[in-house]
Amino acid sequence: MIKGFVFDLDGVITDTARFHYQAWAKIAQDDMGITINPSVNEQLKGVSRMDSLNVILKFGHRENDFTQEQKEALATKKNDYYVELISNMTPADILPGMKNFLDELRAENYGMSLASASKNAPRILKGLKLTEYFDKIVDPASLHHGKPDPEIFAKGAELLKIKPNEAVGLEDAFAGIQSINGAGEFSVGIGDPKILNEADLNFNSTAEVSLAKIKAAYAAKHK
After folding, report:
1. How many CB atoms lie within 10 A of CB 179?
2. In sequence order, what are the residues at sequence separation of 6 or more whose Cβ sits closer than 8 angstroms to the Cβ of residue 129?
3. 40, 188, 206, 207: least CB-packed within 10 angstroms?
4. Helix pair angle (121-128, 68-86), 10° resolution
5. With a cut of 70, which residues of the chain have pLDDT below it?
6. Cα separation of 208 and 188, whole Å?
7. Is 8 one of the catalytic residues?
8. C-alpha 73: how far from its chain's center?
């Protein structure tokens, strides 16, 4: 039976992807001379800051032009600008339907943890006034591997003290769905089902997410 839910943050609870894109686009243009586009942005979803930087450098054919120290400085500069952009987030920035879904989970006493690659997740939850909903937050600094590796979602279940097959993971990125599946958890994709085609259950948008449908699909998979 389901005992807990492990959430990604961006694209599931709120949309900070646009802020990430704005910050990366500015740093890429100003400091690397690279103009990124939305297709590059898709590759940045759900991956770490340094991995994102490497994606951009590869896109611009400049992967060998910066030292590790310079790369770390670029990543820090990007994050500083991103923090500026997210500093004014409020509960109005919660994605449609998600506050009601979180309220429903809390009313039924499900454990909830956050499995986000973002080191700014606690700051974002605070702005959204959702901190109290999450029993645990995975610390990205404690991880050895990024998505699609299962480590982050496995950790999310472990922090709730539940078995992988008792956990439901929610994601909007293909790499995230692979991470959930690799951890042995029930995967819920939010977004285009053609992209998230490995999810156990898919909703086109956060507004459609339904606990009843998740329970039914989970039960059908585990009967």
Report:
1. 30
2. 90, 91
3. 207
4. 0
5. 46
6. 12
7. yes
8. 23
pTM for the predicted model, two decimal places: 0.82
SS3 31: helix
Tell me which of 10, 51, 80, 139 is the catalytic residue.
Answer: 10
| Bridge-based pairing state of the strands 201-203 and 136-137 | unpaired
Q: Quote the tokens at residue 120.
A: 């700014």
**CA atoms of 42 and 51, how far apart (whole Å):** 13
69-103 pLDDT, tens per residue? 999 999 999 999 999 999 889 999 999 999 999 99
Q: Which residue has the tokens 């994601």?
A: 171
Q: What is the pLDDT of residue 38?
A: 87
At which residue do the structure tokens 């974002």 appear? 124
Helix locations, the chain, DSSP H: 17-27, 38-44, 49-59, 68-86, 98-107, 121-128, 151-159, 174-182, 211-222
Question: 84 Cβ partners below 8 Å, 6+ apart?
Answer: none
Q: How far apart are CA 167 and CA 110, in angstroms?
A: 10
Q: What pLDDT sits at residue 146?
A: 86
Q: What is the pLDDT of residues 197-220, one digit of tens each?
A: 999 999 999 999 999 999 999 999
Active-site choice (8, 30, 80, 192): 8
Instruction: Name the one residue in this structure whose structure tokens are 């490995």.
Output: 198
Here the tokens at position 113 are 């943890």
Please indicate whether residue 103 is annotated as part of the active site.
no
